[in-house]
Description:
Elements: E1 2-7, H1 12-20, E2 38-44, E3 47-57, E4 60-68, H2 77-91, E5 96-102, H3 106-110, E6 115-123, E7 126-134
Keywords: Acyltransferase, Transferase
Domain N-acetyltransferase: 1-135
Protein name: GNAT family N-acetyltransferase
Amino acid sequence: MAVVEQIFPSLTWRIRHIAMYPEHPYDFVKLENDFDGIHFGIYVDYELSGVVSLFTQGDVGQFRKLAVLPDLQGEGLGKQLMEYLIDFCKIQKLTKLWCNARVNAKEFYVKFGFHETNKTYTADGFDFVVMELNL
Length: 135
Ligand SMILES: CC(C)(COP(=O)(O)OP(=O)(O)OC[C@H]1O[C@@H](n2cnc3c(N)ncnc32)[C@H](O)[C@@H]1OP(=O)(O)O)[C@@H](O)C(=O)NCCC(=O)NCCS
């Protein structure tokens, strides 16, 4: 059984690095405002296996760096993290949640009701599109 919990910011870094930017130096995955965020981890057999980070401004939330360990992708962990995150945002009475989605993952977000905007850009070798969910 997988369990989602709020976690200390620095616990996200190892998973982000392995799942998202393994070819970059470890420090590359640290965000300058990580310590202002709210971070969630999903544990499988007590092992941290996926993470996501939430940053709020007023009643709008941005989530960043959703990442599941490569060996455990495709087993529903990302979905469980997203559902937890969306419920958390609703409980906090946020009205909107958005993210910079990697284009190759955008269909994943559509499954949760996110819609694509016309804001796109390329960074660090990936194409991104801003996706939004009205809560
Ligand atoms: C994207 C990611 C977080 C998804 O997590 P996951 O645990 O592998 O996904 P799940 O197993 O929970 O998948 C849930 C559903 O989304 C689908 N899905 C998963 N990844 C997808 C992708 N990249 N594109 C489209 N659909 C995807 C699954 O097929 C599944 O569909 P179903 O419910 O119809 O069976 C994970 O693959 C990952 O960490 N990837 C590398 C880092 C990354 O790209 N992060 C996102 C940056 S925007």
